[in-house]
Design brief:
The chain is mainly alpha-helical and about 210 residues long. The protein is about 45% helix and about 10% strand. The protein has one domain (about 1-210). The protein is globular and about 45 Å long.
């Protein structure tokens, strides 16, 4: 009952109130992003949601479009500015995801939506993470954020789904507050710097062992 009815209702009401209350913050961040990083203001990317249904995720952009002489984008570490790092460390870049929650594509709490290209590399057990709507924050993020390896992150996502309930969501919310305001975790300059590319790691494991599980 909680997962089917109460949680979605709370998500909708919370996202609507959040968008109204935080509208001045949205405006300020949007202007700063436009001035410091250029346009477009929003970063949009397709991600798999509940039942692996693909949706478009919204975030404030945190990197410039700096390119080399050949027109190729420079590495993430070069394009991520101090302002971009600030947005990530404070999670302000995640604010536009409230629109995803309002549209029913995401929840406040759940496994983080990862790349579509990762879909073929989940084990059968790890696919459970897509049985619920992805979240703005999740158990894996508050259990180590950039420091957990992929196997541990997937295990935390499965744990969340299997123990989904009021107590679990309260636990994640409490830890999220501590993580955001305490800023206990560093922000990776490169999106794959902390844990490596999931698809590449799993492909190499398949080649060596013939299995996705560790």
């Amino acid at each position: 009952m909680y997962a089917r009815c109460f949680k979605p209702l709370c998500d909708f009401i919370g996202a609507l109130l959040g968008l109204i209350i935080l509208s001045p913050v949205y405006l300020i961040v949007a202007v700063l992003v436009r001035v410091k990083l250029g346009s477009p203001i929003l970063f949009k990317q397709e991600r798999p949601g509940k039942n692996e249904r693909v949706f478009r995720l919204f975030k404030f952009r945190t990197m410039t479009d700096a390119r080399d002489e050949s027109g190729v984008l420079l590495p993430d570490a070069v394009r991520l500015t101090g302002f971009g790092k600030f947005l990530r460390s404070t999670s302000l870049d995640e604010l536009p995801e409230l629109f995803n929650i309002l549209r029913g594509e995401m929840s406040f709490i759940g496994p983080r939506p990862l790349l579509v290209t990762y879909l073929p590399y989940y084990s059968e057990r790890e696919k459970i993470r897509h049985a619920v709507r992805p979240g703005l924050t999740g158990l894996a993020q508050v259990s180590g954020r950039n420091y957990l390896n992929w196997d541990d992150r997937m295990a935390k996502d499965v744990e969340y789904v299997e123990q989904l309930g009021v107590a679990m969501d309260i636990k994640v919310i409490a830890k999220t507050v501590g993580t955001v305001f305490g800023q206990r975790d560093s922000v990776a300059a490169d999106t794959n710097a902390a844990e490596g590319n999931f698809a590449q790691i799993r492909r190499e494991r398949l080649e060596k062992t013939g299995r996705l599980e560790p």
